[in-house]
Amino acid sequence: MTEYYSIKMNFFGNSDPEKLVKEFGSPLYVYNEKILRQKCRDMKNLVDYPFFIPNYSIKANSNLNIIKTVREEGLRADAMSAGEIQLLLHAGYKPEELFFVPNNVSEAELKYAVDNGVLVSVDSLSQLELLGKLNRGGKAAVRFNPGVGAGHHEKVVTAGKKTKFGVNTDCVSQVKEIAKKYDLRICGINQHIGSLFMEGDSYIEGVKSILAVAEQFEDIDFVDMGGGFGIPYRKQEGQEALDLASFREKLTAVLVQWTEKYGKKILFKSEPGRYIVAESGILLGTVYATKNNYGNRYVGTDLGFNVLARPVMYDSHHDIEVYRNGKPQNQGATEEVTVVGNICESGDIIAKHRTLPAVEEGDILGIMDAGAYGFAMSSNYNMRLRPAEVMIKENGEAVLIRRRDTFEDIIAPFNI
Ligand code: LLP
């Protein structure tokens, strides 16, 4: 068997999966602070250029403790909703460190951002009109759709001809007209081509096209190139990480060359979500039943799609590790199993026909790379409590950073 990721990274610090589940319950999201901080540093180093800053896209993981750690590392942040702005302000961010990148929002939501001094990017001409009315004489940014998309699934490709996002790149003159009408200054433009690319070329193509749009604005302060940086979800099959070093070289060259032509040093930004948090999170769950149904071996766990929606929603692959008595099981007999959760739908499958070390009831499963879009997309479906979240601190200690839901949390909103 391949080397277990959790072992290689000393992921669980002074603890082990069994102790963690005993202390904090199952299922459980566990994060590693050291890895999280390292990913932040990698991203800050994405370009060899002094005017570059990544904005953490908090939709990937909005645990307040994680946001605060990312902030300590010096990243700024992106928000997709008024709720995310509110949370970021609560985490200690200053309004000018935030960028609001919404899609189809109400006047009230736009007004919330404007009143709080957060720069807004609009992604349609109609929302630009609305922003103009609310922020006459102020600043605005515009999200363009560069016509090139990328992503691990069609549901997360957010640019190109088949997506709702962004303003077409041939609408620059309309953008300028609306801006003039409301005395708005277009201070920046942005894009996000989609989520998860493993080779940098599609991103660089996207950057080139957004820069071609940027050139048509005489006096902008920044270009935000978007997020989407992939992580290797199939490490057990030997998948390699994104080659950041060669990416850095190519991207830097494009930015430097463009800046010389533009004649003004502007700020470049990116919007990573997954890259920052995915590999710093492992989801632990417990095997409660095993059975053979008409030739299929099922491993029944508490890891339903209420806890991790990605496999069901996008057919996403997550590597799985098996632990028994706190120890990794990566030697000995293997079997082909289908790992399922405890939700009342037959699609509630976390891994189909996966070869794992022979699993027994009581074993703990570790779902790798679950830090991004894991807890963030969890729900109370079937009246299940969303899991607790624990951080393994740099000194190896396990600290609870979000308690498990309680029944009281579930009934509190009802008007009875
Ligand atoms: N910027 C914008 C405008 C976005 O919409 C997104 C993600 C990001 C940045 C961050 O993208 P990232 O670096 O994380 O790829 N739930 C899906 C991913 C949805 C991404 C939505 N937008 C998943 O689990 O794969």
Automatic annotation (TrEMBL):
Substrate binds at residues 274, 310, 314, 345, 373. Pyridoxal 5'-phosphate binds at residues 228, 271-274, 373. It is an enzyme of class 4 (lyase). Coiled coil: none annotated. The keyword Amino-acid biosynthesis applies. Its EC number is 4.1.1.20. PROSITE patterns: ODR_DC_2_2. Its cofactor is pyridoxal 5'-phosphate. Gene3D superfamilies: Alanine racemase, Lyase, Ornithine Decarboxylase, Chain A, domain 1. InterPro entries: Ala_racemase/Decarboxylase_C, DAP_deCOOHase_LysA, De-COase2_CS, De-COase2_N, Orn/DAP/Arg_de-COase, PLP-binding_barrel. It catalyses: meso-2,6-diaminopimelate + H(+) = L-lysine + CO2. The modification N6-(pyridoxal phosphate)lysine is found at residue 59. GO terms for biological process: lysine biosynthetic process via diaminopimelate. Residues 36-278 form the Orn/DAP/Arg decarboxylase 2 N-terminal domain. Pathway: Amino-acid biosynthesis; L-lysine biosynthesis via DAP pathway; L-lysine from DL-2,6-diaminopimelate: step 1/1. The active site is at residue 344. Keywords: Amino-acid biosynthesis, Decarboxylase, Lyase, Lysine biosynthesis, Pyridoxal phosphate. HAMAP family: LysA. Homodimer. This is Diaminopimelate decarboxylase. It comes from Ruminiclostridium hungatei (Clostridium hungatei). The gene is lysA_2.
